[in-house]
Amino acid sequence: MYGYSFFQWVMFFYIYCFVGWCIESTIVSIENKKPVNRGFLRGPYLPIYGFGAVFVLMISLPLKDNPVLVYFCSMIGCTILEYFTGWAMEKTLKMKYWDYSDMKFNFHGRICLTTSLFWGFLAIFLTYVLHDAVEYIVLAMSIPALYFSGGFITCLVVSDLVYAIKIALDMNKILAKISQVREDISEARRELSEKINSNERVIQLNEKIEKLKAFSDQKEKSLGFFKRDYINAHPTAKFSNVKLNEAWKEVKEKIEETRKSKKS
Q1: pLDDT one-digit tens code per residue, 108-165
Q2: Distance CA 212, CA 206 (A)
Q3: For the chain, what is the mean pLDDT?
Q4: Cβ atoms within 10 Å, residue 21
Q5: E strands along the chain, which residues?
Q6: Which residues make Cβ contacts (< 8 Å) with residue 237, sequence separation at least 6?
Q7: Residue ranges per domain, the chain?
Q8: 207-220 residue pLDDT tens
Q9: Which own/partner pairs from 212-216 qualify as long-range (CB within 8 Å, at least 24 positions apart)?
Q10: CA torsion angle for 237, 242, 247, 249 (degrees, to 10)?
């Protein structure tokens, strides 16, 4: 494609992985005021820059005579690539390796306007400046050297990638266990709270029963005196006697209802 062999494209990919790692690690190290190995791999390479550079070259090389088209087509292409790369990594590895949520004009934290504009300028620099030097190095390599270098670097990257994925999956398991522990703690707190509230409810019901008992004893005595005095004074007052008995029955029913609610 465009006069390059498959292994030459492979070398372009690895060189731009390294160049991207140098650029981003330098920027982040300056911001943090300490050396930072940018990316999720241990080695000095960022695959997204390799894919991005190869992707841009496939777009820009046929448009090399028109810098405006190179800028905008590369900016749009890289933005789409960055978004879906971030989405795929979040879905498969359950981790977010970059986040633009605190930047203006971002979309889902995976892309933002500032970075997209940067991709356009980077594509111009890549197409018209950097790629000439990289192309010179790759085209100067002999076929055996090209095959050996490509194969050796591929083994390193694949082993590094497998290790990184294993670490990410192990971390996901740890995070899942932590989440489960948090749920267990929340459940234990809820049960404890219910038990405490239940004990408080029992105490409240006991107090209510004691008050009802005292009330019933008092009313029973009062009703007894009233019945005795009233009925003795009015021997024919059967209707009033029935009413007093019903009132006392209601008091006993309330006590029984309270006892049942305590048991439940």
Answers
A1: 888 999 889 988 998 899 999 999 999 999 999 999 999 999 899 999 989 888 887 7
A2: 10
A3: 77
A4: 21
A5: 106-107, 111-112
A6: 230, 231
A7: 6-141, 199-263
A8: 766 666 666 566 55
A9: 212/251, 212/254, 212/255, 212/258, 213/255, 215/251, 216/251, 216/252, 216/255
A10: 150
Q: Record the tokens describing residue 106, joined without a space.
A: 């971002």
Task: Note the residue count of the chain.
Answer: 264
- Render pLDDT for 19-71 as a digit per residue (tens, 0 to 9): 888 888 888 888 888 887 777 777 788 888 888 889 889 988 888 889 999 99
The single residue listed with the structure tokens 């991207």 is 20
Please give the Cα distance from 138 to 149 (Å, whole number). 11
Residue 231 banded pLDDT, cuts 50, 70, 90: very low
pLDDT exceeds 80 at position 245: no
Contact 202, 259 (CB under 8 A): no
Spell 236-257 as b/e; 16+ CB within 10 A means b: eeeeeeeebeeebeeeeeebee
CA quadruple 175, 176, 178, 184: dihedral, nearest 10:
160
